[in-house]
Here is the input.
Amino acid sequence: MDKKIAIILHTFMRDNELFKCIKSIEKYVDNYKLYISDSGTISREKKKLYDRLKLEGHEIMLLPFDCSFTIARNLLIKKSREPYILKMDDDFEIIDKNTISGMMRVLELNKNIGLVATNVAFPDKLADYTYNIYKILNEDGDIIELRKEQWDYQRISNLKYYYCDITVDFFLARRGIFPQCNWDEDFRVGENAHDDFFFNIKFNTDWKIAFLTNFYINHNKTNNEKFYKFMRHRFTYLKKINKKWNIECIERC
Here is the structure.
């Protein structure tokens, strides 16, 4: 039977978190195919996991050490064929069997929505990372500000969501938004690559983005020192994104 969801997952030096992530997918998601890229070292335990997943029909891609996640995600999108794409990070953990089916229902019942996200719970808080983008014209050109808003909630049966421009980095998308809205491979890490992806959807497509409030997933913080050794600064590319989108300032209030 053809799978309905491609789960794209890039991992780097977070083995314990990856194992929890895969376990949660196998427990709470149906009718999917995994597409995993790995730019870290391969332990014996991880090799055993990958060998099993390949036997089950999933795709494993081993990349050069510390390869950019933007390159990895675009490669995974190209390899996948399923009509829906679930984008996850290796430190996310699904904890409710209704989460993905709820996100899928929003996409199936509202054909204008190209991407739907939901809450991510960090160890000490529930992430509130959703914004609307405003273009304000001044004498020097466009200023784009990211602002939280009083959201106008929508409902589909018992599901509650609102429209926004930028969401958390866990989402289910239609294949139709790709490849027009892939990740810019000139960005290697961090929030600038994340913002750039959503700017693309906002300014280059007619797709709407929805944030579903019914569910949340866990974010498992890593204690792996090797990971932090290679973690690059998250705001390295601020000047690049400002120039690319003619942004004078980004205000997250």
The radius of gyration is 18 Å. The mean pLDDT is 88. The first helix runs from residue 15 to 28.
